[in-house]
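Lab notebook page, bench 4
Experiment: in silico fold of construct C2
Operator: M.H.
Input chain length: 346 residues
Purpose: comparison with the prior construct
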Amino acid sequence: MHEDSPSIPPLFVCGTGRSGTWILYNCLARHADIHTFPREMRFLVDIDGLRTLVDALTIQYHPAYAAEAIYRFEQLMGVFMTTPERAPYRGFDFDTWLGTPYYREQLSAFCGALVEHEFQGVNWQVQPNNEGRLVAVARQLQGLRQQIVGEPVLPYRIGLERDHLDVIRYFADRGALAELAGSFVSELFGHAARSNGRLTWCEKTPQTLLHLDFIWEILPHSVVVHMKRDPRGVLHSLRKQPWAPSDLEGAALWLRNMYRRWFDLKATFDLSQRRYLEVRLEEFCVQPEAVLEEICALAGLEYRFAELPAISLEKADYWKHEMDREEQQRATEILAPYVEWLGYEI
């Protein structure tokens, strides 16, 4: 494993979601020296992911909790994110994207560095003894359906075998574990970049915005680009997503809590000491080249883009025509003062 080079830092694109992160990411993918990924590399900040694991081995340490955390991390990385045919990460294929067997070797080495001892036992607090007859019937029906429709025959429940329990290290020095986690990420993503002839990599998971303390903890030299958009435009787009409330009030409250958390977190940073850039989607749509030049300068990269995709302001401002005046007024009432704090007019 090796640490990321401060001279060519990795890049992260983040935001609230529905704020233009994909538009920027698609442009950065056209850079000759930047490697991007087919999907969001969510394990950094998702539940049971890397942040959960680091917390479990430091500030939340308990032997049983730590053992369960590493089991779930290995299950997330070794099963869920490498079985594209199945939820909860349908379409994710880390084995292909990060290189098998290299990916498996790095995952095993990282997790192995956290385990001090193995023993035979059962964690009765999380392992059911008997799932019952109905579950068994459901498994049979699932397998039969897969055969009929021609899908790959997968187990009813995918997971790792619990054939042993682990004694997990407690890291009194959180910085040592953060460095280990950062090296793991750098090696995985750096290998993917090098394999594709690129000098560095860029990752886009919008929710990373609320975990920048962790990102800079494990990868302190990272460039972070925060994509902003008029909150009323974000709200309107959120209502069309299956993972957010479809009603205006609910979506506005969902978004307001995101902004509240972000501004609380932002207040803890000295951003003048970080490679951090805020980009308004509306401005990016008008002058994409100027924004991309600024990002390249921040990362120490030459401006080497292939033909950029078509970008139009109408795709960012369409909410102004689809939301009626009453909806816009109500959205403004709920989201104030964040509309102004993000640089938009009431």
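Observations: Residues 1-6 have pLDDT under 50 and may be disordered. The longest helix spans residues 174-195.
Next step: discuss at group meeting.
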